[in-house]
Amino acid sequence: MAFFGTIKLGAALLLLGGCVASTPLSMTASEAEFARGPWSEVPSVEMPTGDASIPISLLRDVAEALLKLPGATACDPGTRRPVVGLSTEYCSTVYVAGGRDSLSWRVAEPVRGSHASCRPFFAVKDEDYPSSQVWVVGFVHNHPCAAAPSSQDLSVWPTDAFKPFVSMAEVRLIPGNPAPAVFKDSVIEMASALVAERQDGTRLFLRYFPTGEVQQWSEARARWVTLGICAPTPPRPPFRNVAPQCRSGGLQLLRD
Question: How far is the C-alpha of 17 from the C-alpha of 10, rounded, in Å?
Fold first, then answer.
């Protein structure tokens, strides 16, 4: 598969209906220019992982820490919608740090959002490595009601190489700083992820790519399953989040 080369980082954007950002819980998003990492609650995952993008082992640890935060799983049981003032989305920046022969997956300290939004930052200050050895891959956040990725989720990326509301990327992208993120002879693929807890207590793990591919981790099959290829739909007046458009219709989440 062909890939773009290095990817220029973009500026911070407001994301509604799925938050992707990372600043310490004690700070507001506007008070920070960089996410701080790694988050001490989530162990780093050393390469190789058998995967070119965000590994399930990292997401399991993220879910264990993120979903324990106040309001992270608060959902109205009747409407299956987030509760204003109670439900809370949290976001962390996902990145890799190190060198070509020793690279690890990490997440930055999370930022607290509202029931439906938070603000992303596309730069990380890692406590172990300089910026030249840090590559932002994407973001991870929770949905309090275990909903599928929203149009806003699919529209925010740490790059200005494409415009999601115009067209998704034609191929998967490689993060750059500006050197490309590479482990030995394998490139790292840009992606973001979503973790959630269903009403029955089981966990939901999703990841999605700039190409619009949305994947869910299947416990039964022990692998990622592609649910569809989607593109964000622009908000309609009055301003509100809308579902993305997918080639095969609406996304159907796995229940295994």
Answer: 20
Q: Reduce the DSSP state of residue 75 to 3 states and report it.
A: coil
C-alpha distances out from residue 52 to 173, 219, 232, Å: 11, 19, 24
DSSP 8-state symbol, 79: T
CB 175 within 8 A of CB 137: yes
Query: CA 204 → CA 3, 134, 186, distances in Å?
Result: 29, 28, 28
Separation of alpha carbons 212 and 237, rounded Å: 24
CA neighbours closer than 13 Å in the CB half-sphere of residue 99: 1
Rounded-to-integer distance, Cα 152 and Cα 139, Å: 13
Which has more pLDDT, 234 or 137?
Answer: 137
Helix (H, G, I), strand (E, B) or coil at 206: strand
120-161 pLDDT, tens digit each: 678 999 999 999 999 999 999 999 999 999 999 999 999 999
User: Residue type for 16, please?
Assistant: L
Q: What are phi and psi of 58, to 5 degrees?
A: -65, -45
CA distance 55 to 58: 6
